[in-house]
C-alpha cells in the first residue's frame, strides 16, 4: 500500500477537518461514563455478565444508523490482533485498559470515528466524542444526543442525590470528562508553562500528556481536562474548562508573537534544523520525532514554512507510533527497526508535500 493510501485509510476522517483555533487546540473530547442499572459494574462482574452486555449492545445499537454519526460498527477486543488494538489506542479510540485488561471488552465506532463507545472498560459504557479544534460545546451536545439515544433503549444507574453512578468515585455525578489537546510550544520555550501548570491544577483541572494519565507531554502537547464531575452541571464543567483554555490560547499567541519579534532568527534556525533532520534522517526515536514535528508545526504557524500542511503534526504524531509503524510495515518490528521505519515514513510524508 502506498503511503498516501495508508494515510487516507489510517487517519480518522474527523482529524482532517480544521476546527476553531486548530493551530493551538488540535482536538476536543467529551466523554460520558454510564452503567446499566441492576447489573454488576465491570470491575466486579463475571465475564459471562460482561458478554451479556456486549450482546445487548449488538442487539440494540450495533449495525444501526444514527442520524448524525452514520453506521455504527461493533468490534470485540477478543476478535482483534494485539497490534490492531494498539492502533485504536494510538488513535485515542479506546483506552489501554480496554485493550489489555478488560475481561470482555468491545467498542462501538462511527464511520468517521468521531464517536467511540467503549464497552466494559471501567464502566459499562464510555461514550466519547472527538472533534477537531476547540469544539467543547458541540462535543457536549453530540455526547448528550448519544446519551439520550441509548437511554431510550436501556436503563442507566442513576439516583437523584448523586447523579450517574460509576466505578470510580471521581466520575460520579455527571460522569463527564471534557478535555482538549493543546499544542503549546511557545509557552514551553519561554518557560511560562512551569508557572501556568500549578495555577491550572488549583482551578480543579488536570494537565496530562498526549495519552492521558501517566503519559509524558511529548512534542509540547498537553491534554487539559476537568477533575471533578460531582456538584456541577455538565454545562458548568465545560464552561470552566473553556474559560481556562481560552486564556491559554491567548497566552500561547502572545508568546508566539514575542518569539517572532524578539528571537526570529533563533526560531527560524530551530524550525529549519528540525525540518532538515526530519527530511534526511535514517533513524529517529519517538521522543525526538515528536519534538522535531512540534518545531515544524510551530514554523508553519509562524509563517516560516508555507508549503507544508498544518495537519502534518496531527498525522505524524499518530502514524509514527509503534502500532501504526508495524501496521504499515505489515510485520512486528524491533525498537531499532521501528526507529528506522519512523524516519523513513516521515521522509516519505514530507516528500508527498513536494508533489502536491
TrEMBL record:
The terms describing its cellular component in GO are: extracellular space
Q: Which UniProt keywords apply?
A: Allosteric enzyme, ATP-binding, Kinase, Nucleotide-binding, Transferase
Specify which residues bind ATP according to the UniProt entry for this protein: 27-31, 92, 126, 177-181, 208-213
Residues annotated as domain Phosphagen kinase C-terminal: 24-255
Question: EC number(s) per UniProt?
Answer: 2.7.14.1
UniProt note on regulation of activity: Appears to be allosterically activated by the binding of pArg-containing polypeptides to the pArg-binding pocket localized in the C-terminal domain of McsB.
Q: Which InterPro entries match?
A: Arg_Kinase (IPR023660), ATP-guanido_PTrfase (IPR000749), ATP-guanido_PTrfase_AS (IPR022415), ATP-guanido_PTrfase_cat (IPR022414), Gln_synth/guanido_kin_cat_dom (IPR014746)
Q: Which GO terms describe its biological process?
A: phosphocreatine biosynthetic process
* GO MF annotation, one: creatine kinase activity
EC class (word): transferase
Indicate which residues form the motif RDXXRA motif of the pArg binding pocket involved in allosteric regulation.
Answer: 338-343
Per its record, the protein catalyses: L-arginyl-[protein] + ATP = N(omega)-phospho-L-arginyl-[protein] + ADP + H(+)
Judging by the UniProt lineage, the source's domain of life is Bacteria
Its function?
A: Catalyzes the specific phosphorylation of arginine residues in a large number of proteins. Is part of the bacterial stress response system. Protein arginine phosphorylation has a physiologically important role and is involved in the regulation of many critical cellular processes, such as protein homeostasis, motility, competence, and stringent and stress responses, by regulating gene expression and protein activity.
Entry's family note: Belongs to the ATP:guanido phosphotransferase family.
Q: What is this protein called?
A: Protein-arginine kinase
Amino acid at each position: 500500500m502506498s503511503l498516501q493510501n495508508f494515510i487516507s485509510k489510517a487517519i480518522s476522517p474527523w482529524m482532517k477537518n480544521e476546527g476553531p483555533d486548530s493551530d493551538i487546540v488540535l482536538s476536543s473530547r467529551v466523554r460520558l461514563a454510564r452503567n446499566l442499572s441492576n447489573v454488576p459494574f465491570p470491575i466486579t462482574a463475571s465475564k459471562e455478565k460482561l458478554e451479556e452486555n456486549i450482546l445487548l449492545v449488538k442487539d440494540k445499537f450495533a449495525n444501526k444508523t444514527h442520524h448524525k454519526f452514520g453506521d455504527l460498527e461493533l468490534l470485540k477486543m477478543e476478535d482483534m490482533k494485539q497490534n490492531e488494538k494498539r492502533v485504536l489506542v494510538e488513535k485515542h479510540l479506546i483506552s489501554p485498559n480496554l485493550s489489555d485488561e478488560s475481561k470482555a471488552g468491545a467498542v462501538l465506532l462511527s464511520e468517521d470515528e468521531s464517536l467511540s463507545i467503549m464497552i466494559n472498560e471501567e464502566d459499562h459504557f464510555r461514550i466519547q466524542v472527538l472533534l477537531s479544534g476547540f469544539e467543547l460545546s458541540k462535543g457536549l451536545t453530540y455526547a448528550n444526543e448519544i446519551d439520550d439515544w441509548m437511554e431510550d433503549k436501556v436503563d442507566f444507574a442513576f439516583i437523584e442525590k448523586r447523579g450517574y453512578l460509576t466505578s470510580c468515585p471521581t466520575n460520579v455525578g455527571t460522569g463527564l470528562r471534557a478535555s482538549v489537546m493543546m499544542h503549546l510550544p511557545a509557552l514551553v520555550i519561554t518557560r511560562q508553562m512551569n508557572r501556568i501548570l500549578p495555577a491550572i491544577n488549583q482551578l480543579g483541572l488536570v494537565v496530562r500528556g498526549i495519552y492521558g494519565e501517566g503519559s509524558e507531554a511529548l512534542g509540547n502537547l498537553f491534554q487539559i481536562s476537568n477533575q471533578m464531575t460531582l456538584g456541577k452541571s455538565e454545562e458548568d464543567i465545560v464552561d470552566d474548562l473553556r474559560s481556562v483554555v481560552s486564556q491559554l490560547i491567548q497566552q500561547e499567541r502572545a508568546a508566539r508573537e514575542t518569539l517572532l519579534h524578539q528571537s526570529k532568527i533563533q526560531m527560524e534556525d530551530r524550525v529549519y534544523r528540525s525540518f532538515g533532520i526530519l527530511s534526511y534522517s535514517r533513524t529517529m526515536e519517538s521522543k525526538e520525532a515528536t519534538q522535531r514535528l512540534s518545531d515544524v508545526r510551530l514554523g508553519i504557524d509562524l509563517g516560516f514554512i508555507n508549503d507544508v500542511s498544518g495537519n502534518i503534526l496531527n498525522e505524524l504524531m499518530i502514524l509514527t507510533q509503534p502500532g501504526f509503524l508495524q501496521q504499515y510495515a505489515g510485520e512486528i518490528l524491533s525498537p531499532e527497526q521501528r526507529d528506522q521505519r519512523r524516519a523513513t515514513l516521515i521522509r516519505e510524508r514530507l516528500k508527498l508535500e513536494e508533489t502536491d
